[in-house]
Amino acid sequence: EVQLVESGGGLVQAGGSLRLSCAASGFTFDDYTIGWFRQAPGKQRELVARISSGFSTNYADFAEGRFTLTKDNVRNTAYLQMNSLKPEDTAVYYCNTVTYWGNGTLVTVYS
Hints:
Elements: E1 3-7, E2 10-13, E3 18-25, E4 34-39, E5 46-51, E6 57-59, E7 67-72, E8 77-82, E9 91-97, E10 100-101, E11 105-110
Parallel strand pairs: 2-11
Antiparallel strand pairs: 1-3, 3-8, 4-5, 4-9, 5-6, 7-8, 9-10, 9-11
């Protein structure tokens, strides 16, 4: 059974940092692209960043230069380092591979 479990969300002041983790199981982690998405209240879910099996990354414009996505194929975990956080980054952040989703972790940024 494929499982994606996010952690690391929380409450942070604007300008601060958080590192989100996505622990994966039930599939060959090395072989799949892992994505982070987010959904703010009243808004559609949007892509934050993706990392391919070959470690290539791409970022949404709002994430470029502030967020860094990495993965550890030994620990089957993907990490989203988020720096210089802004109140508009407040959302539930979800991990994704293919058609599978985690339950999300809430990030709240206050000014």
